[in-house]
Structure formats: structure tokens, C-alpha cells
Amino acid sequence: MSATRINRFVAKAGQADALKLFLTELIPYITASPGCESCELLQQESQKTEFFIVEKWHDKAAHQASVAGFPKDKIQSAMALLAEAPQGNYYQRC
What we know:
With 94 residues, this protein is of the alpha+beta class. A hairpin with a 6-residue loop joins strand 2 and strand 3. The protein has helices at residues 16-32, 60-69, 72-79, and strands at 3-10, 36-43, 50-57, 87-91.
């Protein structure tokens, strides 16, 4: 069953551009992952420190395999840019 994953990221003050760059560089990795149908990065209009990544996957397992393969050192370096822990959930079309 297909799955949509919506992830929320909030940058620390002064780190929005750096977080945006990191997330932008993450998109090709996501879209090249087996089972990824689409991926889009969004930035909140009035709160420029808030970002969302909306991912559509063939199934939840494909997303989880993609996350497991992403380099951990890159994730650790991005954590320094965040004001709070990233949030994410799976959604299904109604």
C-alpha cells in the first residue's frame, strides 16, 4: 500500500539558509531511492525557519529502507542546525 511521509524541520535562528541547503541536497538521495514516487521540499511563507518534506512512497518499507541507508554523519551534522527534533508521520489517502 502506498504511503505519504510528511516531515517537519525547524531551523535554529540564523540557520534557515544552511538547513534549506542541507534539505535541498537530501532530495536527490530520496528521489533516487527504490520505491520513491515523489519528494518535495516546502518552506513556510511567514516563518522562514520552518520546512516540510513531503514524500510519496510505494510503501512504508521502501521509505524505511531509504532512511536506514542515509549516511549517519550527514544526519548528525544537520542536527546542529535544528531548533527542535524533526517530526514526521505517515499518511494514507482517504
